[in-house]
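During the no-cost extension, the postdoctoral fellow (Dr. R.K.) reprocessed legacy sequence entries with the updated structure-token encoder. One reprocessed record is reproduced below for audit purposes.
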Amino acid sequence: MAQKVTPRSEDYSKWYTDVVQMAELADYAPVKGCMVIRPYGYALWENVQAGLDRRFKATGHQNAYFPLFIPMSFLQKEKDHVEGFAPQFAVVTHGGGEQLEEPLVVRPTSETMINVMYAKWIRSYRDLPLLINQWANVVRWEMRTRLFLRTTEFLWQEGHTAHATEREAREETMRMLEVYRDFAENDAAVPVICGRKSESEKFAGGVDSYSIEAMMGNGWALQDGTSHFLGQNFSRVFETKFLNDRNELEYIWQTSWGVSTRMVGSIIMVHGDDQGLVLPPRMAPIQVVIVPIWKSDEERAAVLGAVQQVQAALPGIRIRLDDRDGLTPGFKFNDWEMRGVPLRVEIGPRDVAAGQVLVARRDRVGEKKQPLPLAGLAERLPALLDEIQRDLFDRAVRFRTERTFYPTTYAELGEAVERGFAWAWWCGSRACEDKIKGDTKATSRNIPLQQPGGTGRCIVCGEQAAEQAVFARAY
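Re-encoded structure tokens follow.
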């Protein structure tokens, strides 16, 4: 490619934008704050969808779809909810050339609409639990946008479940947090910290919010997914009740949880390098690209015969044959490196004569290409893809470990969040949390479920603290 990616060390933000556009994942839309997801980027999102959807269905959830437009009165019923989202509302006041009787909010999230429907559908404890997920688009009027990470319109899934007891709803909240962790670490190769959000950072209208937090390639944090215990906050205002097994009316207990196209941004920033994308094999739209090399028609026939052998040996692998005319092999190598394809297989006349192929790993750009016999590719290439998947996760874990600090003074905290994650004792007060944010621009990412044990002194005020929180600058 003629263009070069801005080095991460020079300008990380520009590097990210370069990669997204030069790898043809997405582009800026004519509408400010919106993006166009290009086919390659959408294929990556489809792999995110597939990995999550499979897990949702395995845990008993079903997909449904709810309206894009929500009456303003629905959102105004839950005070905390409307206060939290009101600054981001996109509101429709006219339709069909006439002013609407009631303004309609373009879906920022669906708790209110879903409660209206659940109130119609749920009658008794026999209707519970109700486990529904929706794949949809949502609109939140963002002031500062960034492709995939924060856009006015974005794609996501939002799960909404109803339960007969608080215990069941809390179990569901944690079950889905674990589903997200499992997907992030095993499919996206992104190590995450599972934890509870602070009161100031939790979902508007929820009782408790939990998140998975990942470290990006510059040491900043990204919230990759959230799971919320809503309690009975929404069911009370929408009169969503059920008849229990004692023939008494009760309010349902609820959860909601979601992951968005932001996960694509996470994959880019956790694994990418100065050559472009580096994609985990389980996420990659193309897992193996074959680049045939020939000069004459005779060589072409022999090489394409070997290509067919490779394709036939790998029925379960996502393969792309790059037989584009008029482009040099070097150009093709750089192109697929930019797009992050995990394995590149090169086949030329000498390789055909030797009964082999040359294999280059995207996660090890610059290393010597590996010759592999044609006869053993059916076993060797899938094993190599699995090895790359593991290596990318291990590399991300090492990077996070190197950038994780445990400050004992407030000054050390300020230094730590300039470089990465800071685990610190925190008393839980909003004042201390706000001081950290004001002084360092770092926020409390979450209070990890895995705590060191014991107690300590708050990193800010010195008061007794029962938990540590992770502080970091974040997208």
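DSSP finds 14 helices and 25 strands in the chain. Residues 93 and 101 are 8 Å apart (CA to CA). The remaining legacy entries will be reprocessed before the final report is submitted.
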